[in-house]
Amino acid sequence: MLNAERKQRIIENLERVGVIKLAELVEALDCSESTIRRDLIELEQEGLLERVHGGARLLNAHNIEPSMNEKSFKNIQSKQEIARYSAELVAEGDCIYLDAGSTTIEMIPFLADRRITVVTNGLAHIEKLVQLRIDAYLLGGKMKVHTKAVVGAVALNNLTNYHFDKAFLGTNAIHLEYGHTTPDTEEALLKRSAGKQAANTFVLADHSKFGHIHFARIFDLEDATIVTDYIPQEMKDSFIQKTKIIEVGK
Fold it and tell me: Are 92 and 114 in contact (CB under 8 A)?
């Protein structure tokens, strides 16, 4: 296979799944690991992808949503720390909303053996909840294969049937002026609606989300408590003045 053809197939694979492991490319292209590594280095230098631990991902635009698989690769230890703390906020008998996302899904193992009710729009989330025998409801609607999230008008209508003690939401970006944003307008609307249906709303986000902006606005900073591992020092004072933030890494 020619070098140019091989690179094109790497990009095509990434466009389909968002993030891919080195071993998967080796198998798909029937090439040596050293050859694929070299191709990834060259494609990264050309600005077409970013190498991550054990593989590569496409560089994201402001209106492109990373896949669930891609998001699960990033800052996993920080996400688990955030999830562990957030699960401690859940009391016996609570009815909670778990937004589809790579940090909220990490809460589920810490919710085992709790007498709670969970509503979610995450397909991967409902599978884990059922495995742990946690009472759970999955919103109906259109499922996004890329993120395994249920969205759309039917999901929004379903939300009106519930009131939550607490809602735990994900976000793609947190900005002082523009608040919480995400690439997808349908997901932004569903997150905003879930927050309105809850007595207390928490946004779970690691430090990498601060200072960035995406296409669709969810809500203002003041509309939710942020649970994070830490805030980058240069931004800390400004954010603390605008909203309540819990730094679990402190």
Answer: yes
| pLDDT at 75 (0 to 100) | 64
pLDDT of residue 5: 79
List the structure tokens of 22.
Answer: 């080195």
Burial of 174 (0-12, 13-18, 19+ CB in 10 A): buried
What is the token pair recorded at 99? 């937004």
Residue type, 32: S
DSSP-based three-state secondary structure for 120:
strand
CA distances from 211 to 64, 155, 206, 225, 237 (A): 18, 30, 12, 17, 13
Please state the length of the chain.
Answer: 250
Q: Is beta strand 49-52 parallel, antiparallel or unpaired with respect to 95-98?
A: unpaired
The 8 Å CB, 24+ separation contacts for 43-46 are 43/7, 43/10, 43/11
d(CA 75, CA 41): 22
pLDDT at residue 73, as a whole number: 46
Pick out the chain residues at pLDDT < 50. 61-63, 70, 72-73
Q: What angle do CA 119, 150, 158 make, to 5 degrees?
A: 55
Is the entire prediction scored with pTM above 0.90? Answer: no
Report how far residue 11's alpha carbon sits from residue 173's, in angstroms, rounded to the nearest whole number.
25
Distance of alpha carbon 136 from alpha carbon 107, whole angstroms: 14
